[in-house]
């Protein structure tokens, strides 16, 4: 079957590993498919197999021309190197505590089920094109959902410690479902059937995640931005070219120099008071989001959103509005990944003061008022309208000369009822020559 059963656990068959290691560089899509097919057979021994093979699988797409590049060779060599060190998977013990490590990279999801520090099984899959556009917190939660579903037969009905290197998840998973961010509620609902304790574990202590990050770097051969905050700022501003490394450095310096941001960090580390009134007034606006606050690489976060210090908001507002998209679109773009108290009002003020936006804004010319000629006799000209008060409909008739009103109760707003009510009034005052209608309903047409 391609697996070796030993006294200590299960390992990959050396002949299967050798077949892949000795395989020459693929020359076409068919040979690459054979290679990936054999790799998939041994996927349970390879941490994050889906992420490691992502560049190779790109070549199998119908709209991609075959062109073997250096980063494909790097991915293949990394894969072969990991296979030669394929671990021995220990046997599952229903008496031992379970630890689940789940992680997400830019290309895939990875998971490992551990007992007593040794792997029981690995799992991984690639992210879809849609999932690649998720916010980082959504990817990390998706990794947990994927891992518990893949290891359902092991984790269902048992308490499981889930290790994640994304700190906001530790707080969010402890909240009632209704208090969680709307975009996460669907995935959190899928986790309700499991007994999970999500804990924050720094990446350096999650060896699978660490292996993934190193493998990804060697695979791509590029300097990958390891700061998810930086990626989120780029995404929010919608223009990578406009956001230089210097701008990111300025953001971090502004955060360090901002007294409110530093006070928020201090409360996050030392603990928030039990009552809002015990808090410094300058921090009151952060009270509602205090449980979601975290820090990453000298930047303060609320969930998956970056808190922009006051002194740097003008810079961010300027970059947000580079495309002059208007108030609502600018707000929507900012609210996905940015946060500061009063952000919506600041965006409105900025757009209102933007000269270019005001010049391009369509001019809505008000309709001119049309004067009415004053009639010579009473009830020669009558204005008619229908209005509602406390859930009841009424017909209003007003004489244009004397301003005398007649108000009649309507059982309904059908044309028949309105006409009958008008007849009762005109029987007393006479039939007018002109009726001015202001209520545009079928009954008044």
From TrEMBL:
GO terms for biological process: DNA metabolic process. Pfam families: Integrase_H2C2, RT_RNaseH_2. Residues 68-162 form the Reverse transcriptase/retrotransposon-derived protein RNase H-like domain. InterPro entries: DNA/RNA_pol_sf, Integrase_H2C2, Retrovirus_Pol_polyprotein, Rev_trsase/Diguanyl_cyclase, RNaseH-like_sf, RNaseH_sf, RT_RNaseH_2. Gene3D superfamilies: 1.10.340.70, 3.10.20.370, 3.30.70.270, Ribonuclease H-like superfamily/Ribonuclease H (3.30.420.10). SUPFAM superfamilies: DNA/RNA polymerases (SSF56672), Ribonuclease H-like (SSF53098). One of its GO terms (molecular function) is nucleic acid binding. Residues 308-362 form the Integrase zinc-binding domain. This is Gypsy retrotransposon integrase-like protein 1. It comes from Alosa alosa (allis shad).
């Amino acid at each position: 079957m391609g697996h070796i059963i030993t006294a200590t656990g299960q390992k990959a068959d050396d002949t299967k590993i050798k077949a892949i290691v000795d395989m020459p560089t693929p020359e076409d899509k068919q040979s690459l498919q054979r290679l990936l097919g054999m790799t998939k057979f041994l996927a349970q021994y390879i941490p994050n197999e889906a992420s490691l093979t992502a560049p190779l699988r790109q070549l199998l797409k119908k709209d991609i021309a075959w062109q073997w590049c250096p980063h494909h060779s790097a991915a293949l060599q990394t894969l072969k190197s990991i296979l030669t060190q394929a671990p021995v998977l220990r046997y599952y013990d229903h008496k031992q505590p379970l630890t689940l490590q789940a992680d997400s990279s830019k290309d895939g999801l990875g998971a490992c089920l551990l007992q007593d520090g040794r792997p029981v099984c690995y799992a991984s899959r690639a992210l879809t094109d849609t999932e690649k556009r998720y916010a980082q917190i959504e990817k990390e939660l998706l990794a947990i959902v994927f891992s518990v579903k893949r290891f359902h037969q092991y984790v269902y009905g048992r308490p499981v410690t889930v290790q994640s290197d994304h700190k906001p998840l530790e707080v969010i998973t402890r909240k009632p479902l209704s208090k969680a961010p709307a975009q996460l509620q669907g995935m959190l609902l899928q986790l309700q059937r499991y007994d999970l304790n999500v804990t924050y574990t720094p990446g350096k202590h999650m060896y699978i995640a660490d292996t993934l990050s190193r493998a990804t770097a060697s695979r791509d051969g590029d300097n990958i931005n390891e700061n998810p905050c930086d990626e989120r700022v780029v995404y929010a501003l919608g223009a990578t070219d406009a956001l230089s490394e210097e701008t990111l450095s300025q953001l971090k310096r502004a955060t360090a120099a901002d007294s409110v941001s530093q006070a928020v960090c201090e409360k996050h580390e030392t603990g928030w008071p039990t009552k809002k009134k015990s808090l410094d007034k300058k921090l009151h606006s952060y009270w509602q989001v205090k449980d979601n606050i975290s820090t990453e690489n000298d930047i303060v976060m609320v969930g998956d959103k970056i808190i922009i210090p006051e002194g740097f908001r003008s810079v961010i507002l300027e970059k947000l509005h580079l495309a002059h998209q208007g108030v609502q679109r600018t707000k929507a773009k900012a609210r996905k990944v940015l946060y500061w108290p009063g952000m919506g009002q600041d965006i409105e003020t900025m757009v209102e003061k933007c000269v270019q936006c005001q010049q391009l804004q369509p001019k809505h010319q008000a309709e001119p008022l049309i004067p009415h000629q004053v009639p010579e006799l009473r009830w020669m000209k009558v204005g008619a309208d229908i209005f509602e008060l406390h859930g009841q409909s009424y017909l209003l008739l007003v004489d244009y000369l004397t301003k005398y009103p007649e108000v009649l109760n309507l059982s309904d707003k059908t044309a028949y009822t309105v006409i009958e009510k008008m007849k009762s009034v005109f029987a007393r005052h006479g039939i007018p020559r002109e009726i001015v209608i202001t209520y545009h309903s079928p009954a008044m047409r």
